Batch of 3 targets.
Target 1
Amino acid sequence: MVTSGDLPGLDLPELDAHSELGGLGAVELSHPTQDLDADGLADTVTTGTAHAMQVWTDLDHDGYADHVTVVDSGGDYAAWEFHHNSDGTTAWVRADGGHLGGT
C-alpha cells in the first residue's frame, strides 16, 4: 500500500517490493542528492523506512522521478518506470522484481 512518506520535506511515498503503484502519479524530486548516471547532475534521492529502501531517479532532469527501485528488509526487490502514454495518460509500469539471493 502506498502511503505518504514520513521524512520531513521530501513527501515521497513509502513503498515496499509488493506495493501497487496504480494510483501513484508523478513524483516530484525537488532536491536530488546523488548523481546515479555520472553526468555531473544530481538525479537521485534515496529514502528508507525500517522495512524498505527506495531509490528515486529523475534521468531526464525534468524534476519528476521516472524510475524507482525498492528493496525491502526481507530481500524482495522491485523496479518501476514512469511512462507517458500516447493518449496523454501516465502510469508506473513494473520493470523488474524478485528476491535477492535467488531464492
Target 2
Amino acid sequence: MGITSALVLFAVIWSMTFLIALPIRVKTQGDLGEIVPGTHAGAPEVHNLRKKAWITTWISLVLWAIISAIIIFEVITVRDLDWFNRGSPAAPASETGG
C-alpha cells in the first residue's frame, strides 16, 4: 500500500467515524428551551466539535492501523472476496491462440 492509498484510507475512515460521532450527545436549542428566533428547534446549541474531532482522530488511527495491517499482511485479499470467480486469472497467451 502506497502513501497516497494510506492517506486516502485514513481520510475515509476519519470522515465516516466523524459522521457517526456528530449526533452523539448533542444538546439542541429545543432541549435547552432557548430557541433563537428564525432558527430550527433542532439546531445544535452545544456540539463539542473539538472534542469529537479528537476522539474521532484517535478512533480512526486505531481502525486505520488494524485495516492497514490486514491489507499489508494480506490477511484478507481480493481473491477471498471473489465469491463468483469473476476475478480468475487470465489464461496464458499460448492457450488462447494470441
Target 3
Amino acid sequence: MVDIFDVIADGTRRDILQLLLDRSGAGERGTSVSQIVAELGASQPTVSKHLKVLREADLVSVREEGQHRYYSLSPAPLDTVDDWLMPFLVDETDASAAFAAAVPPLPDSAARTADAVGRAAASAKHALESALKKLPGR
C-alpha cells in the first residue's frame, strides 16, 4: 500500500495536484500531460513519472481519448492527511464554540433524554470494561 505522505512529500507531485485542482475548479474535464508539462516547465518523462506515482496512490484518474491522456484530481485519499492534520489545526475550545453556535439548543425533554442515554452508555461501558478485566489472562 502506498503511503500518502510519501506521495505528497514531493514538490513536483504537489504542484501537479495543485494544477489539477485549479483546472478542475475552472471546469476542465481533465488536463493533458502536455498541458501539465507546459504549465510546470518540467520534462515530459518527469511529469509522466510523477503522474504514475499519483495514479498508483489513486490521487488522479486518467481518461484516454485516442493517443491523449487527460488527468483529473481524485482527492479522496487526501482524507487520511486531513484526518491526521485536524488535531493540529483545530483548537478544541474554538471547535466547541463553533459547534455550539451552529447547533440550536435541544428542547428540555430531548436534553433530558440525551443525558439519560449518555449516562446509560457510560455505565454500560464501565460494566463491560470491568467484566473484561476479570477475564483470565487479562
